[in-house]
Structures are given as C-alpha cells and as structure tokens.
Amino acid sequence: xxxxxxxxxxxxxxxxxxxxxxxxxxxxxxxxxxxxxxxxxxxxxxxxxxxxxxxxxxxxxxxxxxxxxxxxxxxxxxxxxxxxxxxxxxxxxxxxxxxxxxxxxxxxxxxxxxxxxxxxxxxxxxxxxxxxxxxxxxxxxxxxxxxxxxxxxxxxxxxxxxxxxxxxxxxxxxxxxxxxxxxxxxxxxxxxxxxxxxxxxxxxxxxxxxxxxxxxxxxxxxxxxxxxxxxxxxxxxxxxxxxxxxxxxxxxxxxxxxxxxxxxxxxxxxxxxxxxxxxxxxxxxxxxxxxxxxxxxxxxxxxxxxxxxxxxxxxxxxxxxxxxxxxxxxxxxxxxxxxxxxxxxxxxxxxxxxxxxxxxxxxxxxxxxxxxxxxxxxxxx
Length: 381
Prior knowledge:
By secondary structure, this protein is of the alpha/beta class. It has 2 domains: 11-150 and 177-241, Spore Coat Polysaccharide Biosynthesis Protein SpsA, Chain A, CATH 3.90.550; 282-371, no CATH class. The protein is 47% helix and 13% strand. The chain has 12 helices and 12 strands. It has a 7-stranded mixed sheet, with helices on both faces. Helix 1 (48-56) links the parallel strand 3 and strand 4 (64-69). Helix 7 (222-232) runs parallel beside helix 8 (253-274), helix 8 crosses helix 12 and helix 9 packs across helix 12 (350-371). It is globular and about 75 Å long. The two termini are 32 Å apart.
C-alpha cells in the first residue's frame, strides 16, 4: 500500500491539492512539506466519518489520511475507505493506542522527509477548519510539535457542561502562557517527522525512557509522556488558540472517574520516571500546588462548617468579601467564551465546588495508588 503520491504529483485524495507555501517566490521550484494524518481507531464506526470529513474540510487538507484500525470488530475500515481515507491495520497489537501508533509510524515515516509533518488525531475528535493551516504556520526550528486546544462537545447533561467549563478554562490558561502547550493532546497534535525520529533514537540510546519506539508503552498517558520527550530534546510545544478540537465529554461520573484517574495517575508516573529536570520542574510544582490547593480547600470547608456549628452565620467582612468577589469574577471571566450559561454556573459557584471535590478525590486516589505501587487498570471510556 502506497502512503503518498510521488513528490512531483501534488494531487491528494478526493481531488484536493496541496497548496504552494506562501513564502515561495513565483517560479521557485520549492516542494512544500507534506502532511499526513494518522487516526488510531478501535471500533469507531459511528464517529470515524466525522473525523475524516473534518480533515478533508481543512483550509489546508492533509496529503493523506490513514485510519489505523486496531483490533476492530465493526465497520470502521469500510466507513474510513468510503470517506476517502487509507486504512492501516495493526498486527497483533496488545498495547492499545500507543502500540497502534508505533506500528503505523514505523510504516509511514520511511516515506517522509525530515521536514514533513504527521498529525496524530483521535477518532472521536473533529478539528476546527483552520487547525492544520494554523499549526503549519506555528512551526519553526525551535518548535517540534503543535497540539490542539480541546473543547467539549455538546450533550452530557449538567456533567457535560461542567467538563466544557473545565476545558474553557484550560484554553484560557494556555492563551495566558503565550500558547505554550502543557500537554500535546492526543485529540490532535502535529509533529515534525524529524522530531519523531529523534524521540525514537533518544529512547534507544537511553537518553529518555519509555521503551524503544516512538510512543512509550509504559505510560498510561502517552500524550503527556511524549510531550515531556519532545521538550527534553530541546523543542518547544505550542497550542495556538486557532488549533481548536472538539472532543467527547464523559456522560457519567463513573466514566469521568476512570478517565481522570488514568490521566492523573499517568501524569504522576511520568514525573516519577523522568525525575526532576529543567523540563519537568514546572510539572512537579504544578502537582504540588494541586495537592496543596486540594488540602487548603478541604480545610476551608471544615472551618466553615465549624464556624456555622459553633457561632452561626458570620458577619460580613469587607476584606474577605472583596477576596470572594475577585475569586468569582476570575471564574466567570475564564469561561466567558463558553456563553451565558457557563457564566451563570460560575457565578453560582456551588456546582463547581462539588466538581472540584471530585477532581481532588481523583488526585488523592491516584497519589495513594502510586505510593502503594498499585497497578492501575485501564478502563475504556
């Protein structure tokens, strides 16, 4: 199976055409960097069409879309082919998404130059039409990968709304950090082919851990781990605001618990494996502040309960009232792009307090499991 057309043929599937780079002078015979998309999928027949169509509708469409079918027992491959994608079927993979991507990358990279680009996208995700065009514009010699800023899809009831508010705040924080990516999200990230090769070489030389392939098979959160790998090699990871992706929200507390437990435990294990370095130091500080904030919040609730039990309702304090107003304003401003309903929930405050308690429970459960060296069981969400 051929991955891409010959370099002199600029046609791509579906009659679409690669664009000449804006910086190329008239008559200049510069071959633009090619871009392929890899979509790992396990039984995604109901969602894969939307993911593929979203890529063909990009302002800068990929030169090839490859759906990586991994142990599928449904019609994912047939749907993918019907929507103009190639299909790469994994062989004997038992390592889930990371193993599927390692097989697909080992097959695809020999056909690519170092400056070519590889998009890795989840099958349950649809990219904003300007995603790839924006990502390509963000690359330079210092940027090794460009990830998406994810937003929650509609639905999921009130729990879905709270998740969308959480994602809105994440995008707000990324923008405040100058679009520097904290995590190269698996929902959609573009890598320079050269960087992926360097990651594998660094693993094989022992410079970084995680096995001998592109993605670590030892991590519960391969996207968080490969972020640290890319940064350890000296590259920047970016998440421009226009690189928006819409992904699913968890419809139940049980599914949300398992998803967040995997995310949090994976993040902690990755830090344990990498140790304290210039790259990981901010992540260690973040985890410390998360734990400190959780303990402080619980202490605050206990003090409030004691206050009400012993003394009844307290009088208004101008100082603490002002602090409270600033706190609420920050929560409202950070979700303003999510619309009036999200702003209203932020003002009410109480629902998000319970959501925060849920997140804190996830943190402490993950930390306790790590301390006990209890193996985390992977649960599909």
